[in-house]
Amino acid sequence: MKAKISLLLLAFSAMPAFSQQQVETQPPASELAPPSQAAAVKLPSALQWVQRLSSSLKELNFDTSFVVVRNNRAEPYRWLHGVEENNELELLTLLNGPRKESIRIDNNVSYFESDNPPYTVNSSAISGPIPRAFSGNVEKLQQSYDFITVGKSRILGRPAQLIRLECKDKQRFGYWLWLDIQSGLLLKAAVISRNGELLEQIQFTHLLITEHSNDLLKQLITVELPSPAASIAKPIALPWQVNWLPSGFELVNSNRGLLSTINEQVESLMYNDGLVDVSIYVSRSDEAARQASINQTGATVLLSQLREGYEINVVGKIPANTALQIAESVSFN
């Protein structure tokens, strides 16, 4: 089984990654209408654009490459998606460094990393650089973000519509999305601070949309993948709690485990607002209390605080002040 999976993944990563190919698709209705009727065509709203993105990510057969740029470092990825025999198939691989691939067949996602044994979880989207919310319930994002239509530009040689997602409470970052006018797919995304600073971006370098799914994806249907891990029926009761989060964040996971690198038990809670994951890790510590320290990579903040005999770490794509408020709201039973 492992040999067959390795051959498939090797074939995938060996394919050319940075060519630019165009596809002819039906132009928007406004471009087809006669001049006298074009002005009467109602333009789609920002929400409708993002809804179209969600549909395109689930329904279209595409082969694409993109680069994630943060802190002057670029990580190249290859991404395939298709629908075959009523199965939604997806394959994502990191092209540089240690091997890291993800395979999704409908609601099962298998992860393959060089330093860990492969595993499968129940999920309708791969956890990776592309926010899972973009292929999910985008309407939920309206609780925390304003959707704004800005203007048109040209990305990857294709006409694109810019949509901004602005945080309502200023306790999160903003997201700018450039969507392909012809297909609705993502061509570029940027995470922007409250001061308008570019924190990180995703730039697509190749896009091919096809009528049928890629042959490599078809082979995934016959591959034996790891069985899904048993899901936890209810959250674990922890001896501490988080008393403040920005509005819209909901608990999605709680966990307790031994961290092998320090041989210490670590407990964690993960929250999500529909777009952003925020994790809080708590472990006992004999070190003296100290002020919070902050490390930031791109848009991801890691805040560490020592108090009351515990080390508290907050990780997520949120402003440092928001992470500090979350850490200081943690209380112990």
Question: How are the SSEs placed, and which strands pair?
Answer:
Elements: H1 2-14, H2 29-32, H3 35-38, H4 46-59, E1 61-70, E2 73-84, E3 87-94, E4 100-105, E5 108-113, E6 116-122, E7 145-155, E8 158-167, E9 174-180, E10 186-192, E11 198-210, H5 215-220, E12 240-242, E13 250-259, E14 264-272, E15 277-284, E16 290-297, E17 300-307, E18 310-316, H6 320-328, E19 330-332
Antiparallel strand pairs: 1-2, 1-11, 2-3, 3-4, 4-5, 5-6, 7-8, 8-9, 9-10, 10-11, 12-19, 13-14, 14-15, 15-18, 16-17, 17-18
Task: Give the structure's gist in a few sentences.
This protein has 333 residues and is an alpha+beta fold.
Detailed description of the structure:
This protein is of the alpha+beta class and 333 residues long. The chain folds into two domains: 2-220, outer membrane lipoprotein receptor (LolB), chain A, CATH 2.50.20; 240-332, Phosphorylase Kinase, domain 1 (2-Layer Sandwich), CATH 3.30.200. 15% of the residues lie in helices and 46% in strands. The protein contains six helices and 19 strands. The protein has an eleven-stranded antiparallel β-sheet, sandwiched between helices. Strands 13-14-15-18-17-16 form a six-stranded antiparallel β-sheet, covered by helices on one side. The protein has a two-stranded antiparallel sheet with strand order 12-19. It starts with a helix and ends with a strand. The relative contact order is 0.14. Mean pLDDT is 86; it is low at 1-33.
